[in-house]
Design a protein that fits this description.
six-stranded parallel sheet; disordered C terminus; alpha/beta; Rossmann fold; binds magnesium ion; disordered N terminus; binds adenosine-5'-diphosphate
Length: about 575
Amino acid sequence: MSTANINPANAAATPSYPNQVTGMWVLAKALTMVGVQDMYGLVGIPVTDFAYVAQEMGIRFFGFRHEQNAGMAAQTYGYLTGKPGVLLTVSSLGFLNGLTATINATVNCYPMIQISGSSERNPIDLQQGNYEALDQLAVAKPLVKQAFRVNDPKDIPTAVVRAYRAAVSGRPGGVYLDITTPCLGQVLDRDVAESLFYRPVDMCPAMVPDPEAVKRAVQLLAQAKQPALLIGKGAAYARVEDLLKQLVDKTGIPYLPMSMAKGVLPDDGPQSALACRSTIMQEADVVVLAGARLNWLLSRGHGKWSPDTKFIQLDIDPEEIDCNRPIAAPVIGDLRSSLTAILAELPDKIAMDPAWTAKLQAETKAKNAKFAERLQANVAASPMNHWSALSAIKPILEANPDVILVNEGANTLDDTRDAVNMSLPRHRIDCATWAIMGMGMGSVVGAATATGKSVVAVEGDSAFGFSGMDFSTICRFKLPVTVVILNNGGIYNGIGVNLSHNGDPAPTTLDINARYDKLGECFGADTYYVTTPDELTKALTASIASKRPTLIDVQLAAAAGKESGHIGYLNPESLQHIIV
Ligand code: ADP
Ligand code: MG
């Protein structure tokens, strides 16, 4: 092992053995062999030296302040590139902190690999206690797509390839790779180690659908009078915007994106039925689900949905079919293969009623006009509310379509999603299927480093709090990221009432007078504290142009916002009088 491979702090004490390498070296080399270029994490015993070795081999290492945020960066990298994002964690608590993100990646079908050091097996298996002892594989296994443990450095190359394949093939997901401390530190002869590596072939094979399934789907679509295309983030991930455009151009079918599929086809395109979700649920006779699950975000196919609507579902995972409602025409395959086959089979004209499109277009026009009125009506609100803030944010983001938008919060999420039209695929990242908070600062780092693009995060004040310390990571790596915090001083809002009246804050109350801009200042960011839409316009315009780390603290009224917008059934009626 060369002295340059290890923490310079220990270098003097380490002899040089050019003909020998460690498990850490094998791991770093194995990652480069499968094309890993970036890694996110937080070092400590037993992985610190591994991060040094990986950097020396040319892998970029983005060090964070909390493993969950590093994991959120890795999962966002996975979603945006189609290659697994790699997270590195230490044993026990670091592993657990990072695992949250690996599970979230699994829930959301993002490819990701969490590599964690773990303490030696014997005392764990005998439950004798050890430094940071935890049976990590057992913890991770039921919660992630796949999990492996490596005890022998000679197995590392195989384990890395298997982890990669598990993360990206079929339905993508999070994979856990446990590497024990003795394995990381074990010394091998270099020539033995070199003989272990190989370049794997076809890591994410195409999955071609059954022609019968394609025929069944085409027949159903061709005879539909009022069809709709529902685009999910699986389609964004699969990069099939070209084929979806062909489908829309050929058939005229109206489309409705799920939140992260906004922009796969333009939100303001002529066939966009973004504003007509309820009408589609109630009146569409055939709905094509392209990489979208009929899950809670779509009322599991019930609620407003007409019982007569028939579904064509394009998905890579056969187990997804019929999970909430019978699917008339499942097409199992990767979306590129499935859409290609459907387009080849589809007649030049389908039976769609032109009145259907006209109706949706009229509804869209009316809804958009109402929405514009709503934004306008709030411009002068003082203090600002979410709509006045969005009256400034919306035109700037729409004029900068290449900027990636990261979005989390309650009202901040609902209102920003509704207000800001996206026109490019994979430019909107939010808290997605699990509806978790705390993906923000991690996701922006993942998005900026995976794409080299500018990123704007629009964050609720509560949401920001979960990952706020990793604003420092944005600054350390000098990323072109602007974080806009809409501060209404609480979870949902800042006017909750403590029913005991003992002077403590209510459970939903946070910090309406916090100056988040000062937090930005301490890490050397450009900062703004704004109280009007005009000031926000100037700040956001300047920050996007500067490409410098920026934090904009937007002061809202404590009364702005209500308990989680569109999912009233989850909010107990009995408390509405306190919170609204
Ligand atoms: P949304 O939240 O936008 O509705 P979901 O995450 O619920 O999206 O659904 C994404 C779906 O896309 C999952 O069921 C997943 O299996 C599927 N999927 C992911 N990648 C592919 C692919 N390459 N081809 C086909 N389906 C895919
Ligand atoms: Mg808030």
